[in-house]
């Protein structure tokens, strides 16, 4: 853009078009009748009739990033003004003439990072169900003065009634400067795009910029495996920060994360005194387990606590390819149970939590007997979500060390925590988002 007025005018025009011309819609949640609805994000969808997107045999090996620190790995090749280049596997070097002003943020990690870096207005579309996506990020932003994510009028590239598919025409209607989505995911069995389809859309509209398989260090589809690299959560966030040329904001958030982790690690009890944990999805009397001990940024808010996966005690182990009934939960003897992505479910989680705790076998499961069955967050987390989710998990697992978790409340927003019991400074977060670094 040549000046601020032109930039503002173009942004308003784009917003007006998206509001009245883009195709949007779809149901709030998908799940089995009579059970707790399960989010339709293809990265975590779990129902009786659906199978996980990721294979349980995914690799847990993380290749080297070349010896660079996170900050060094995320610094773009750029001059102060003019074109600049950001490099990330699997897309390679991507050159931008200017900072993008319209982006597709398919997952919350990209949308959350854009908001945290002061570029929330650049998000013109999000993925899968809009209300579920909006509830995911609003749960955390509602507790910050002056920080919000206006998602209601955003476009989406998943057609109404089919949140697990993508409509190429919607990409063209949106005309985003950059698509924060991994082209290798598009070529996988989840979407089955051809290499030609992937390349032509990038050439016609804007580049792809995403690394989906770092979420669990899983194996990408054939044709994408050579040279595919895995990034930690903050390496990935740093790559997005480089696209927006917001390295200073990124480093400020990274410093907050480092301080919070240092505080948590200093106060953790010995491993022998830590609770066992089960992370699950829940549908109609069936629990679907997650292995939060595996590599990947999906579990960056759980792994630092060094707790044991309760499902290691059950037949079949903690893999994510099975399902468990109440009898298996009794066998697991989890001290704490976290409902993955429960923070976005609202009344659905509240109602089904009551049903679980009232079950005839609930008293034989330590977590249910002690009412330590909590809504947990989403692994596709931007900087702000990550800080809140570390604090939330600390309180859910270790109330004596970090203060008791106040509960889910009405499920609409992160609960109010007394200032003296907070593990990070809310105002500092709001200041960084506002550019007061």
List keywords for this structure.
about 425 residues; Rossmann fold; alpha/beta; five-stranded mixed beta sheet
Describe the structure.
This protein is an alpha/beta fold. Helix content is 33%, strand content 11%. Helix 4 links the parallel strand 5 and strand 6. It starts with a helix and ends with a helix.
Short description:
This protein has 437 residues and is α/β, with parallel strands linked by helices. It is built from 15 helices and twelve strands. The radius of gyration is 21 Å and the shape is globular.
Q: Tell me the total number of β-strands.
A: 12
Contiguous uncertain segments of 5+ residues: 1-79
CATH class of the largest domain: Alpha Beta
Structural class: alpha/beta
Mean pLDDT across residues: 84
SSE layout and pairings?
Blueprint: H1 4-21, H2 70-74, E1 77-78, E2 84-88, E3 92-96, E4 103-105, H3 108-116, E5 123-126, H4 130-141, E6 155-156, H5 168-174, E7 178-180, H6 183-186, H7 195-204, H8 233-243, H9 247-267, E8 276-283, E9 286-290, E10 308-309, H10 326-332, E11 336-339, H11 347-357, H12 366-369, E12 373-375, H13 383-397, H14 399-402, H15 426-433
Parallel strand pairs: 4-5, 4-7, 5-6, 8-10, 8-11, 11-12
Antiparallel strand pairs: 1-2, 2-3, 8-9
